[in-house]
Amino acid sequence: MARNSKSNAKTETTETPEAPPPGRGKKPTFKKAEFTLVNKLSTKNLGDALKVLADPEGTRLLMGTIVGVASSYQEGSSDKGDYVALLGTFEAIPADPSKQRVRSGKCFLPGTVVGQIMAGIDTGGAVQFALEIVAKRVDRRDSPVGYVWEVRPLIESDDDPLTALVSQIGNLPMLPAPATE
User: Fold this and answer.
1) What predicted TM-score, i.e. pTM, was given to this entire model?
2) Which label site among 62, 91, 100, 174 has the fewest CB atoms less than 10 Å from its CB?
């Protein structure tokens, strides 16, 4: 609302916020989600790990990041062997920007890390994690598919007993390098 006061010859503007109609709150606004909900989440949601084999120069391929809060887990068996499904809230963020982010209440992770998350759930409840997932090319004698998963934690837990132990021992002296002949 604008008001013009002739006595001081300048224009003064005062704005009054409009109140919502009685009995009604603010109209909700929605933003399009940047992810898709899926039944289960795994490293496959990050992309095709076999691409690491297609590049003759490359030995490692960053697949993406998996973040989550695991509150429990479910052990089972299938025709592919035993498995552990983490239960909670999870999101896969592919390194390839053309791939869609996905979320799920069930997550399958490489065995290198799932045991640690299970132990954390067993001793303290929910476990938060953020993991960078890399496909690393290896000799087929080491893995029949030609690659293995490298998993790097992006956050440290405040109550991780191993971190506390390492901080207690401080800097250890380095062992001398083996003698070469």
Assistant:
1) 0.71
2) 174
